[in-house]
UniProtKB/TrEMBL annotation:
Pfam families: DUF4238. The lineage of its organism: Archaea, Methanobacteriati, Methanobacteriota, Stenosarchaea group, Methanomicrobia. It comes from Methanospirillum purgamenti. This is DUF4238 domain-containing protein.
Length: 189
């Protein structure tokens, strides 16, 4: 069983920017109207969110390291004036990639894949399966068990879609309150 079971859909390197000590942040829950401290190790993560194949998790971790350096630069300088063209590409790529790293996006993608496979694709290859004496139910189960690999399409989509937002004006929002916080159950993208 892979060791990195807890896979964050909001990277810890981003969450640390909202903490007082690098580990604890304040979370506001709109449903319960409560604010409470929570560890970044336990929030915005699920067991095997990207699946048990660690290739996607490994690739995302590499991206996150690059993005963390860029975000640290932006936060320390409090300006975007010193950002290079390549860094702007990375910034927009990180935004479009993060947009797709949500529970809802994952579930919608899996639902769409399952619908397309069961209702469209599997029927079109049925004659081929029969010619090889293969079982459609077994093929369906095998294909649907690999739906976790859809993340690769989200990474590709993020790289393709970043130009769609690259002409938007960007501004920095600075929290001037005494408490670092993050909002729960609200999607900002």
């Amino acid at each position: 069983m892979p060791s990195n079971k807890k896979q964050h859909y909001v990277p810890k390197v981003f969450l640390r920017n909202y903490t007082d000590d690098g580990n604890i942040l304040h979370c506001y829950n709109f449903d319960s109207d409560e604010c409470y401290p929570v560890s970044i190790n336990t929030i915005c993560q699920e067991s095997y969110f990207y699946g048990q194949n660690l290739e996607i998790e490994t690739q995302l971790t590499q991206f996150e390291g690059k993005f963390a350096t860029l975000y640290a630069k932006i936060l320390s300088e409090k300006t975007l004036k010193n950002i290079t063209k390549d860094e702007f590409h990375d910034l927009f790529f990180s935004i479009t990639l993060q947009k797709d790293r949500t529970r809802n996006k994952r579930n919608d993608g899996i639902d769409l894949w399952e619908y397309l496979w069961v209702n469209k694709y599997s029927q079109s290859i049925l004659p081929l399966l029969k010619s090889y004496n293969l079982d459609l139910d077994k093929a369906n189960k095998e294909i649907l068990n690999h739906s976790e690999n859809l993340w690769i399409f989200d990474i590709i989509e993020a790289d393709i879609n970043y130009p769609l937002i690259s002409d938007l004006d960007i501004f920095i929002v600075e929290n001037l309150s005494d408490i670092n916080f993050i909002l729960e159950k609200i999607q900002l993208f």
